[in-house]
Amino acid sequence: MSLPLVTPTFYRMPDVLVQTSNINGFLDAIFTSLGSSTDYRGTTIPNTHNWTWARYQSGGTTQAVYNTSIPTTTPMTQNPCIIIAGVAAVGSLTPTMQAPDAFTNNVPMIGMVKNAGAFLAWDNANPMTSGQFTGYTHLAGTGVNVLNTRIRAFVSEDSIFFQFIVNNNTQFWAHAGAIVEPFTSYQDSSFNSMPACETDDRIYGIFVVGSGAALSSVFQSTAPTIYNHGAGATNNHFFVFQPNSSNVLTSLRRRVPTTGQYNQYEERDMAGKYVFCSYEFVRTSFYKIGQSRGVYPFANNLSNRMTIRNANTDLYHILSQDIVGLSQSIVLTAAP
Questions:
Q1: Which of 197, 249, 258, 332 could cross-link 10 (Cys pair, CB 3.0–4.6 Å)?
Q2: Would you say the pTM of this structure is higher than 0.90?
């Protein structure tokens, strides 16, 4: 397999509102969103993008949502399982956490198992019986556990992007799966003690805004910064599996331009066509990791503009920090 990889495309799933003001209501809303057979337009999700999802409940209360399979046609060979979990009261549960985050009441968490086996228990040291587990990190703040928080999920062939909208400009974002495209193929790097990617030419990881502050209004350059790893508990976190290993690599960041470099209309060429460039990721003081897959920085976005279209065909989904006012944004390559 050679690089570059085919750019993933994202279906925006139907928005789902949290129906009960607690963490299990938040998890139920995620399960409902991801379980939809159609996207926001009513288009049937094809096999290329069809993840299947299950939830674990105790006494009728949802404690975890996880995928039981990945799309049947995906080039991924590492069988990632994404797990979103949390409880109202910690009690005697002892899930594996990724430092420095701690298992805390009402805080939703996310983790991933590479080469996952069958589901065992979300709070087990190995939730999927076998495979390599990242441990859990905080997905979002407790503020998402309220009535009418909007769950907006985007599903691609090999990753899931979450946009949790508490109100217009209070949002928490996350991205999990094969989210990084390496600069060097496995074939060209496999002779090293640490190859540049997995055997399927992908790098698996998670980005979260975290449970502290909601997404910054200038998130391209100011914390919580998108695709940046904050060292403190509850911070924004960005980490990946070391290829061909169970180790998790942190201290990741993207090269961060100043806020003023993200100006309206600068993503267009002289013919008026959109030209987007991927984020570049590095491990601080170590080496380059790769670049974003189907996710690109965008200028300040006009209110309530959620798509870039060619006639009736979706080209890009727009995700803005403020869904009403002018705000910094990103775009995801859209499934047509």
A1: 332
A2: yes
